[in-house]
Amino acid sequence: MSEILARLEGVSRTYKKGKESVAVLNELDLEIPQGDFLAIMGPSGSGKTTLLNLLGGLDKPTSGKVIVGDDELSSMSNSQLSSWRSSHVGFIFQFYNLLPVLNAHRNVELPLLLTDFSSKERAERASIALDIVGLAERAKHYPRELSGGQEQRVAIARAIVSDPSLLLCDEPTGDLDRDTADEILRLLQVLNRDHGKTIIMVTHDAQAAEYAKRTLHCDKGTLEAKEAA
Amino acid sequence: MRGPKQIFAVTWLNLRNLPQRIGSSVVAVIGVAAVVLVFAAVLSMAKGFERTMISAGSDDTAIIMRSGSTSELNSGLSNEQALIIAESPGVLKDGDAPVMSAELYVVVDVKKKSTGTDANVPFRGVQSGAFDVRKNVSLADGRMFEPGKNEFIVGRSAQQEFAGLETGSTIRFGQTEWSVVGSFEAGGSVSESELWTDVRVLQGAYRRGNGFQSVRVKLQSEASLSELEAALEADPRINPDVMSEKEYYSGQAAPISQFIKLVGYPLTILMAIGAVFGALNSMYSSVSVRGKEIATLRALGFGPLSILVSTMIESTILALVGGLLGGAIAYLAFNGFQVSTLNGATFSQVVFDFAVTPDLLIDGLKAALIIGAFGGLFPAIRAARLPVAQALREL
User: Fold this and answer.
1) Is A14 near chain B, with CB under 8 Å?
2) Using alpha carbons only, what angle is made at residue B316 by residues B314 and B318, rounded to the nearest 5 degrees?
3) Going by fewer Cβ within 10 Å, which terminus of chain B is more open, N or C?
4) What is the gyration radius of the CA atoms in chain A, in angstroms?
5) Where are the domains of chain B?
6) Count of structural domains, chain A
7) Are B105 and B214 in contact (CB under 8 A)?
């Protein structure tokens, strides 16, 4: 049995909507082994993204514990979480979230500004990351000069440049055509298989989920999760 | 090192993004520029007036008037008293002759070139020592008036501001026709607003007998003022007010410069409040437009402090640009702009230049920075406290 990288213990998350409280996650327990490639499926509002945000330290549970590695995220301050995110987790968003004023190389280099690497080291690491995603020759291109698939590859390079153990992908192929989506998913498989990254991917797309090692279903936000058949 | 690097990186990104929100940024810059422009323009009047008045005065020249006089206009000294003053201790001598000028001060009507309306212009009768007791006074063109003749020389500022005072022209004051025989410079001081003639001629023309209104003496040193004052106060034949020329003109400058400041500062504060709202609007818009970027940066691990500080820096930079723009416009449009105003102490016109001085510009920039800091603070707090998960979901 692989070592557990992330663990949710009795995690609940409730949002206030006016005077009403809406429970999105309720007493959720989950263990994610190191090296897992987990797909989380479910309809809108079922709590998939909330789960991802909790694992990435972007949100805090109303109750329960979120533990990633040796760190209990639920007890960290916002500043501590910022610092933790910079070295432990890489995010891949549906709409890439690249900064339009920076070229691909600079976008990838951005997380390294939060490290103590010299500018030369930063440049080298950004080049390696772009090489891994197959976009070394597009380093000087700005996001507006790239296709959707290329933008997502740059975003993946940005997510791995700090060498985090955990990659969190929120609908990474939601804005791409089938062929491009398959390319991105194959790239994620390579990162999981060859580079040892633990990947948690939220998706609506059953075909995308097939690239994962296992799939969990969230059911209408009722906080139930079960192994896919 | 990570903190400053983060702040620098986020600030650089903010500034790179400026073209995307050029409209609101320009509004903020113009708002701050207007504040600094008005601040510098209004207070440059006070500065210019002070400079004109105070630059005329010297610490080693004493002016002696009758006790209780508020200005030369309501002073009076006899010929005998002028001689006593000239022989008093502390007065500088050139050989055996004291360096002094006993003077008479009357006001004549001359039309302003700009409006064609009559204005009170000081007409000063002076003695031959007038150039020696004042600093930086020299003949600019023409020649010196000849004693005993109805001739005068005119200060350069008065010549520029008032009609009919060109060198070589003649002008009538009352029943007397006068020839303008030359002009003089006095370093832009209040003396340049005056007309100078032989004091004996002026006494005759205005039926003032052989009396004077003031006596200026060059002192042996600045410290000689108290010696002269003590000697004159001890003399029962004379009841004088003795002060340095600088002190005399400073006293005259104070009411007008204080009035201008009384108008200028509240006006600046009111406009600054408006500019703060302009900056707030710009920065809230900036935070709103950059919501996706801020949320992404926060997700990548950039801390809330770097977002806060960088937003403040952006606001301050915009304000600084506005301040520099306003200061530059104020300098180009107003520095050296010549006007005249009534000096309440002498009921006569003083011609002076607006002076947009370096310290005024620095004060303007300080005001701009304060506006920028206030304008950026609340948007910066909003940016730093942006709930990342929620912001990412809304994008």
Assistant:
1) no
2) 70
3) N
4) 17
5) 2-54+253-394, 68-238
6) 1
7) yes
